[in-house]
Amino acid sequence: MNLLTQTGMHDDITVIDVVDSTMTIGRDMLKQGVSRPFGIVSNQQRAGYGKKGRFFFSPRGAGVYQTYVFDVAGEFDAGLLTTGVAVSVAEVLFEMTGIQVSLKWVNDFYLHDRKMGGVLVEGILNSGKITQVIIGIGLNILPTAVPSDLEDIVTTLGVDVDRNALVAAIFERIVQNISGYQAGQHLDYYRQHSYLKDKMVTLLTNNQEIFGQVLDIGTRGELLLKHDENLTPFISGDVTKVFIKGKK
């Protein structure tokens, strides 16, 4: 097992061994006026969180927990940014390990029908306009003991990749690609590796459950769901159930 270290790390990334949440520290550093882009990475989070504030299990040595802060220039679309970052991470993982993860709309990485990581994007509002984005990325790298309620849900990459090199490559890839996310340049890759395509799912949106078949990913990164003979694009929501043949 190798851990993240400041030695040899990218100049714009700060390594903190154990934190409550890299997202929280990213916000604090932004308030302090640290120039963007910058990153914070950790070997363990005590209070890591994901979408809708859900707890993200972040044990020491088992994963890589990252937050990156960027200025926003021009228009901002959360769906395109989230799917774009997911593609950048998936590309780097494949290039470094040969492992191809699937992309579960809108912000999860899947491997062998289980979650091995995710992306979280939060916007910072100033005078009614989003001026910065805080991007959180959590990746499960090596197997570890997990809470019983996660045993059938999560998995790991299973390869002890050089974590400093992985973090640096992800940061550099996002910096390289971020100006193209809003144009949807990444969507072909996202569609090609979509975990949900053609599957029957239950989508929770606006406190309503909708059952249907995922047909594709739209031009804004939205989920195109066929339900009740209708084809509807959903820009946000949670896929709470995926129906896989042969599995109950």
List the helices and strands and how they pair.
Blueprint: E1 13-15, E2 18-19, H1 22-31, E3 38-42, E4 44-45, E5 63-71, H2 78-97, E6 102-104, E7 108-111, E8 114-126, E9 129-140, H3 163-181, H4 187-192, E10 200-205, E11 208-217, E12 223-227, E13 230-234, E14 238-243
At a glance:
This protein has 248 residues and is α+β, with helices and mostly antiparallel strands.
Largest sheet: 7 strands, mixed
Please count the beta strands (DSSP E, at least 2 residues each).
Answer: 14
- The structure class reads alpha+beta
Number of helices: 4
Rg over CA atoms, rounded to whole Å, is 18 Å
Description:
The model has no long low-confidence stretch (mean pLDDT 94). Helix content is 22%, strand content 34%. It is built from four helices and 14 strands. The strands form three sheets. The chain has a seven-stranded mixed sheet, sandwiched between helices. A five-stranded antiparallel sheet has the order 13-12-11-10-14. With 248 residues, it is of the alpha+beta class.
Feature tags:
34% strand, alpha+beta, 7-stranded mixed sheet, 4 helices, 248 residues, 14 strands, 5-stranded antiparallel sheet
